[in-house]
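re the bet — no i am not wrong, look at it urself. input seq straight from the record:
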Amino acid sequence: MGAGASTGQFSAEGILSESEIDPNEPVENEGYDSDLAADHERLIATKKTPSAGIPTLDPRKGRLSLQPFGGKYNIVPCAHNLHKPAQYPDEFPADALKLPDDTLKLEFVHGYRAHDTRDNLFYTARGEVVYHTAALGIVYNRESNTQRFLADNPTVDGITGHTDDILCCARHPTGSIFATGEVGRNPKLIVWSSDDPRRPLAILQGFLKKAIVSATFSRDGTLLCAVGADANHSLAVYRWQTGTMLASAKGSPEKIVTVSWSPFQDYVVTCGVKHLMFWSTSPFVARKALFSKRGKIQTMLCCCFPGPDTTVVGTQDGSLYLFKGYQLATNMRRCHQVTHAVIATRDVVISGGKEGKVKFWTIDLMQCLKEVEINHPQAMSGCIKAMHLSGSMLILGTRTGEIYEMDTTSYTYTLMLQGHGYGTVWGLATHPGEHQMCTVGDDCTVRVWDVASRRMVMVRDLGAKGRSVAYHPDGSQIAIGLAGGGLVVLSADSLDTIHAKKDREEPIHELKYSPNGQYLGVGSHDNYIDVYDVGKQYGRMGVAKGHASYIRHIDWSEDSTVMQSNSGDFEMLFWEMPSGKQIKFPADTRNMDWATWTCVAGWPVQGILPRYSMGTDVTTCDRSHTRTVVASGDQFGMLNMYQYPAHKGCAGRTFGAHSAKVTQVRFMFDDTY
């Protein structure tokens, strides 16, 4: 590890079974370098819309929820444990339901999607960098370290951005217009300007289904060709300024991963699983590539155009194929482990591979001019998935979310941006006294971010998927709950291991230190909350048993003697600490002063639940340190903000950007973020 990274020797193998250890980076097989197709189906299948009616409940668990303003009662399992604190007035002021005075503005996003995409990283004509992650198109200014966004605004009429995961990006020949395509049953292809990404120039929708996996502009920029993820992987050609579809065709029963338009002539090349086609544009018909004995049909992953009637294709076995017309002329074998990216000028062809090497070739591929290996102490992988050249500067995107910039005159490079590599980011914690935050997720890493400088400062490979994270009140330690039931405690300064243990077999969804720093509460998927004594080498002091479902959220009282918890069935229970004994009369806790409020159930947060909600569609919440507002995230990717306390019927502000459920929301220690 590099500066600030861990040098400890801890391995999750000591507390996890082999099935819980995250394997090495998945090996690509016939072009399926990721689970893109499965991911599309999963995303489509799991997209839900809010219920339109009152849900049917188990009468043994249903209860009436009290609400101060009358109207219909909601039936929720936790209702019998909701009690009005004594300090709450019987009659509320007129402004109790108004919008909060505070608002939010998206300032910066850490992340770049490349684990299941490619050719989605570009320079603009002004030298800025365009890429995408989640449902956001991002324009990054290197000099000011700031970003602008193509983002959906759920509070305005009309379409202002994407509402689902973006899977592809295409650059217009002018360098100031881009097109991005999303996943979904009826996906949108949005054309927008990097100068003002807030206002889309065109929205193309209707013909392509399931997802838009790749797109490309014509050489004069008037046409846009895109590929869908339907059973035929259909192609469509649009005159994007008018929204007119000029042509369409069936592509292939096998997956197509990229489509590219020659900058020299009007023909299009599609690459995919055992698929390579050359398409004329008038009429829009395809011709198969001819390989003869020089090569073979295999999974083709990328292509570029060094000159007229010349196409270079990168293959699954790492070779580079040079085609003259549609006839294979040259086969440079095994240049990479897998050739993921190729770009070309009139003088040089540049290729990038799975092993992290960038190679510079003569345009006939007969000679490798230079080879540069991309690595960094804080990077998890060097697998190159995207490249773009502007003048002498080459920008590179890797599978695990790093973006590098290389000077091709000196062949030196710098790490520009980082993010979690793949999967969901489950855990988020903010530092108790500094502008830093810590995250864990499915990519098996723990990462510490500096909010002020907008940079990642430390990273550590956990060897297992993370599910939750918490800072000690003095900021000296970071506790991490793992997907396999393990618990790891790291030094906040170095990410070295302090403690590691495993008392559960199910994921640790929630953990939180007591305000006095003496105890750590750990909630798991097997319905238990374990309480550990920090001063006694994290020895277990008690176990809270009583929930009928997995633990979602926990909060400590200010005096560290009581804990409240929410479970997956929206039950709310209270516990004596550190013994874990259940408090049988919840009314006794009605006037308790809570150090934090992250439980989505409770008297002061009733208003964060939508009408008819059973609570499961609100995934997370957090009260500000000033105790004036509460923020919540939901299953539909929305971030909401309300006055605190949030009474039933209160108005809230809604913000978009996420393409899936919001897993965590937290305020910084001073509420600036």
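see?? Confidence is low (pLDDT under 50) at residues 1-74. told u. also Helices lie at 36-46. so pay up
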